[in-house]
Amino acid sequence: MLRIRHTDENPHEASEINVTPFIDVMLVLLVIFMVTAPLTTVNVPVDLPSSTEKPAPRPDDPVFLTVKADHNLALGEDNVAVEALPNALQQATKGDKEQRIFLRADKTVDYGTLMSVMDKLRTAGYLKVALVNLKGQEEGQDVKSSGPMGSGAQ
């Protein structure tokens, strides 16, 4: 006699995925990334060159913020205190926070001071900042032969 089996007669098998090996692998990868992440930072001193690329077109009425060698600020031609910078920018841009601010800094200004000024701009709501350099200036070339032009950076 031929017997037909029904699926109800077989004991049920556990069809769950064992996640323990998966968790073990993830923890090992986490440890590897935690160990290697500090090694990926770059601590190489660098003297950044000027740009020889064609500059972006300049707007009709650009707003220049200058960090002088003595770390004082000038907005356009007028000196401005760090505390008064947000109000001065508000007046210079007529409240348009989308307007690009052209940031210039003396060669002797340290990176920390420049980043501090950029933080002040960000806090004031101005996120579009263009760094200004000397067009086509090579190492040892006379500064008088080149004019200031902006190269955009956000």
What key attributes describe this structure?
154 residues, alpha/beta, six-stranded mixed beta sheet, 6 strands, 18% strand, elongated, disordered C terminus
Describe the model.
Strands 3-2-1-4-5-6 form a six-stranded mixed sheet, with helices on one face. The longest helix has 17 residues, at 20-36. Helix 3 (111-124) links the parallel strand 4 (101-105) and strand 5. The model is unreliable at 138-154 (pLDDT under 50). It has helices at 20-36, 85-92, 111-124; strands at 63-67, 73-75, 78-80, 101-105, 129-134, 148-152. The chain has three helices and six strands. The chain is elongated, with a radius of gyration of 30 Å. It has 154 residues and is α/β, with parallel strands linked by helices.
